[in-house]
C-alpha cells in the first residue's frame, strides 16, 4: 500500500509540474528527483540513488541556466534588459536572473512549492529550497530533452 501511495504522490507531483512548465518528461523519475528537497525521505528515483535530494540536479540546472543566458546574450548581440550589451552590464543581469531570490519568487509564483517533497518535519518551502528546486527542474529538463528543451521551460517560469 505504501508503494501505491508513493507512486500516486509521484504521478500527481510530476503531472502538476509538467503542466506548469509546459514540458512532458520521457523519464518522469528525473522530474521526481528534481522535486526532492535535501533530507526528503525519497532516496531513489527509478534506478538512481538520490541521497541528497535534488542537489546534484540543482548544480547542473544552475550551470544550464547560466549557459542559456550567456548564449542568448551572445546571439542577440546585447544583454537582456540592457541597452549597450556590455559584458559587465550583462553579468549584473545574469546574477539577478539566477539569484536565489529571483528563482524563489518565480517558483512560488508558478506554484511549484505545492509539489516539493520536503524533509520530514518541514512544512514550508524555504527560499533556498525553492531556488534549488527551480534549478533542479532546469537540470532535469536538460537531461531529458537537451538544451533546446530548456529555453521554453525558462520562459514558462518567467526566466
List the SSEs and their pairings.
Elements lengths: L1 H20 L6 H7 L9 E2 L2 E2 L5 H22 L10 H11 L2 H11 L16 H19 L1 H10 L3
Antiparallel strand pairs: 1-2
Helix pairs in contact: 2-6, 3-6, 5-6, 6-7
Could you explain how this protein is built, in words?
- With 159 residues, this protein is mainly α.
- The protein contains 7 helices and 2 strands, in the order H-H-E-E-H-H-H-H-H.
- The chain has helices at 2-21, 28-34, 55-76, 87-97, 100-110, 127-145, 147-156, and strands at residues 44-45, 48-49.
- It has a two-stranded antiparallel sheet.
- Strand 1 and strand 2 (48-49) form a beta hairpin.
- Helix 5 (100-110) crosses helix 6.
- It is globular.
- The N and C termini lie far apart (40 Å).
- The mean pLDDT is 88.
Shape: globular
Provide the gyration radius in Å. 16 Å
Low-confidence stretches: none
Number of strands: 2
Largest sheet data: 2 strands, antiparallel
Strand content: under 5%
Sheet with most strands: strand arrangement: 1-2
Topology pattern, helix = H, strand = E: HHEEHHHHH
Question: How many individual helices?
Answer: 7
Estimated helix fraction: 55-70%
What is the terminal-to-terminal distance? Answer: 40 Å
Mean pLDDT: 88
Protein structure class: mainly alpha
